[in-house]
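REQUEST FORM: STRUCTURE PREDICTION
Request ID: SP-0412
Submitted by: Lab K.M.
Chain count: 1
Length (residues): 232
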Amino acid sequence: MRRATFDLDVLRTFVTGMELGSFAKAAERLGRSTSAVSAQLKKLEEQAATPVFRKAGRGLALTEAGETMLGYARRLIELNDEAASAIRDVELEGWVRLGLQEDFGEAVLPEVLGRFARAHPKVRIEARIGRSHELAERVVSGSLDIALAWHDGTILPYSQLVAEVQARWIGPAKPMQAGHNGEALPLVLFEAPCLLRTVATETLDRAGLAWRMAFSSPSLGGIWAAVAAGLG
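STATUS: Completed
RESULT:
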């Protein structure tokens, strides 16, 4: 049986399209035509020798094999990019000041720092976990070199959109209904100012749903604890 050798450019297009939720957006991000992207996706299925996509309404969804392929594609691209960084002629030295939202700090920071440290062992990293407004102010003032934060459409100097994330309501397993028996929906929220807090309350107001502040905290850990306890 002949082993498949996957094309990294094809895998990069595949991953980009899935992360952006649109292969048309992926074509724009990667500077390719939509027909070129379509050809790459066809090539991916040929190399995999199994269907990667299935029809889902007017769009495409991943097959079980496609979901498996996506995980491996991300790992292959990360390893490729890490290797490219590690063998460049000029070895990076110095230090970088990085800012992250607490949300990203828990899930993203350990893996990203590990890959960066292996590729650039002489670079010293100073990481700050903070709220989006604070991180943006620090980047503008020059006390942070780069930050990953939530974005409300405001144009900031040197900012770049890297991904769109679907907002979700998170609560107890037993549904809570606003207005049930005259009760307002209890909310667990970050202390103001907070972009997601503003989005949540404005969404409820537009829908005409009553709400009340049940718990607020400056800490993500406090938020998770309150939700787990069923406070809102």
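NOTES: DSSP finds nine helices and seven strands in the chain.
Reviewed by: T.R.
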